[in-house]
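hey
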C-alpha cells in the first residue's frame, strides 16, 4: 500500500511541486494552496497561454471547445492510474500493488472503462436512471427536504452543509441503493475519507485512511448486494442486482460509484449555490420574486462554481488537436471548472447571472460517453433543496466564517454556519 502511495501520490507530489516552482502552470494549479481557495485565476492563466498546452508529462486545457471536443472524442479514453504516461517499471508497480478495492475511480468502475466495455455497462446501469425513474423521486426529494428543514429550524447553530446539503443527497442515494438509514453516518465517513483520492499528490495518511474506508465499505456493500439478491427491495440497486446482466464485480463498482458520486458532488452544488447567492443578493432577490427561475439558477451555479473541477483523458492513438500532436498514451488534464469561465463561450464569465441564456452549456457534468449519469437527479435535488431553503427561511444569513473542504477536484465547503431568522408564514402555513 505504501509503495502504491509513493508511486501514485508521493513521487508525483514532489515532482509537481518542483515543476510548479519551475513555472509549469498545471503543476501550479494542482499544488498551490491558493488554487484550492480560488482556482479560476489559475485556469485563466493556463487559457491565456494556449488553448491546449503541452507541459511536462501531460497536456492541459481550460478552453471550453477543446475540453468538450476531447471529452466527446472516440480517440480519447478514460485515464486510469495504470495508464499514466510513466516508465514501464512504475506501471508494473501500480498494477502489482492494486489493492482490488471497489474504488469509484479505478477500473472496472464505469467512469474508468472505455467503449465497447463501457457502452454495455452504462446501458445496463442507465436503465435504472431513466428520466421517468428520476421523476418518480421528485416527491420523495420534496418530503425529505421538508423534514430536514424542520430539523434545521431546531438547531442551535445551524450549518447548511452538515445539517442539510449533505443529508438530502445521502438520504436519496441510500434509498436508491436500498441502504438502511442507520448506515448513513458510515457512508458519510467513507465519502469523507475517500474523496481526496480524486486529487493528486495526497499525503500518505490520507491515502491510507481512504483505502481503509473503501475496504470497509466494500465489505458492507458485498454483503448488502448478496442480501438484495436474496430478498430484493423496491430500489434501483435491487433491480440491477436481480437483472442478472452485471457481474458481481461490476455491480459492486457501480454501487460504489453511485454511492460516492451521488452525494459528494450534489452537496457542493447546494453549498456553492448558497455561497454564490450570499455574495449576489440581487440574484437571490430575483429568485425570491420569480421562483420559477430556480432550475436556471442551478445551471448558473453549476457553471459558476463547478462541484467537479477537472477530469482527464488519455489518447488511444496518435492524434492532432488544435494543431498539436498528442501521442498514444499521453494524458490531457481537462479543467472543466475553468472551461466554464471561458470568455469565448460565456459573456462576462466571472459574473454570476441566473438569467444567462447559455449557462446550460457548462461542462460540470462532463460531456460525451461519460457524461454524468446522475445529472437529472442532481439538477432536481439542487432546485428543490435551494428553492425550499430560501422559501422556508426568508431571513437566512451567514453567521460566521464558512470553511472550505480543502480539496481541489471536489470543490465545496465543509461548513457554512447560518442564522435562519424567522420562518416564512407562507411555508409555515
Ligand atoms: C452536482 C452533482 C454532480 C456533478 C457535478 C457530477 C459530475 C460528474 C462528472 C464531471 C462526471 C464525468 C467525469 C468524467 O467525464 O471523467 C460524472 C460521471 C458520473 N456521475 Fe455524476 N455528478 C453529479 C451527481 C451525480 C449523481 C447524483 C449521481 C448518481 C446518482 C452521479 C453518478 C455518476 C455516474 C454513475 C457517472 C459515471 C458515468 C460514466 O462513466 O458513464 N452523479 N459526474
Amino acid at each position: 500500500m505504501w509503495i502504491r502511495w509513493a508511486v501514485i501520490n508521493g513521487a508525483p507530489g514532489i515532482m509537481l511541486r518542483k515543476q510548479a516552482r519551475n513555472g509549469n502552470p498545471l503543476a501550479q494549479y494542482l499544488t498551490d494552496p491558493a488554487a484550492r481557495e480560488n482556482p479560476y485565476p489559475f485556469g485563466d492563466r493556463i487559457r491565456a497561454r494556449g488553448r491546449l498546452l503541452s507541459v511536462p508529462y501531460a497536456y492541459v486545457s481550460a478552453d471550453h471547445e477543446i475540453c468538450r471536443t476531447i471529452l466527446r472524442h472516440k480517440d480519447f479514453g478514460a485515464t486510469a492510474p495504470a495508464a499514466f504516461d510513466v516508465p514501464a517499471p512504475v506501471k508494473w508497480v501500480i498494477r502489482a500493488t492494486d489493492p482490488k478495492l471497489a474504488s469509484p475511480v479505478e477500473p472496472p468502475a464505469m467512469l474508468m472503462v472505455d467503449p465497447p466495455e463501457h457502452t454495455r455497462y452504462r446501458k445496463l446501469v442507465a436503465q435504472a436512471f431513466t428520466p421517468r425513474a428520476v421523476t418518480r423521486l421528485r416527491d420523495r426529494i420534496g418530503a425529505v427536504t421538508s423534514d430536514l428543514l424542520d430539523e434545521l429550524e431546531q438547531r442551535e447553530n445551524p450549518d447548511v452543509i452538515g445539517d442539510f446539503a449533505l443529508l438530502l443527497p445521502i438520504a436519496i442515494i441510500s434509498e436508491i441503493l436500498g441502504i438502511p438509514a442507520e448506515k448513513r453516518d458510515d457512508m458519510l465517513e467513507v465519502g469523507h475519507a475517500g474523496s481526496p483520492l480524486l486529487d493528486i499528490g495526497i499525503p500518505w495518511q490520507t491515502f491510507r485512511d481512504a483505502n481503509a474506508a473503501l475496504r470497509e465499505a466494500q465489505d458492507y456493500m458485498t454483503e448488502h448486494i448478496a442480501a438484495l439478491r436474496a430478498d430484493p427491495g423496491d430500489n434501483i440497486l435491487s433491480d440491477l442486482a436481480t437483472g442478472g446482466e452485471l457481474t458481481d464485480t461490476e455491480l459492486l463498482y457501480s454501487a460504489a460509484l453511485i454511492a460516492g458520486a451521488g452525494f459528494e458532488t450534489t452537496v457542493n452544488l447546494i453549498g456553492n449555490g448558497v455561497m454564490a447567492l450570499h455574495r449576489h443578493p440581487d440574484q437571490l432577490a430575483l429568485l425570491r420574486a420569480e421562483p420559477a427561475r430556480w432550475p436556471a439558477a442551478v445551471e448558473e451555479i453549476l457553471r459558476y462554481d463547478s462541484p467537479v473541477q477537472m477530469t482527464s483523458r488519455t489518447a488511444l492513438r496518435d492524434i492532432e488537436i488544435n494543431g498539436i500532436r498528442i501521442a498514444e498514451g499521453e494524458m490531457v488534464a481537462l479543467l472543466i471548472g475553468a472551461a466554464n469561465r471561458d470568455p469565448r463561450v460565456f459573456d462576462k464569465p466571472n459574473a454570476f447571472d441566473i438569467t444567462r441564456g447559455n449557462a446550460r452549456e457548462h461542462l460540470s457534468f462532463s460531456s460525451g460517453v461519460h457524461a454524468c449519469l446522475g445529472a437529472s437527479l442532481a439538477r432536481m435535488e439542487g432546485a428543490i433543496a435551494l428553492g425550499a431553503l430560501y422559501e422556508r427561511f426568508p431571513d437566512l444569513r451567514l453567521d460566521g466564517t464558512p470553511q472550505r473542504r480543502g480539496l481541489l477536484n471536489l470543490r465545496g465547503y465543509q461548513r457554512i454556519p447560518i442564522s435562519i431568522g424567522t420562518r416564512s408564514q407562507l411555508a409555515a402555513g
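The first strand starts at residue 53 and ends at 55. The longest helix spans residues 204-230.
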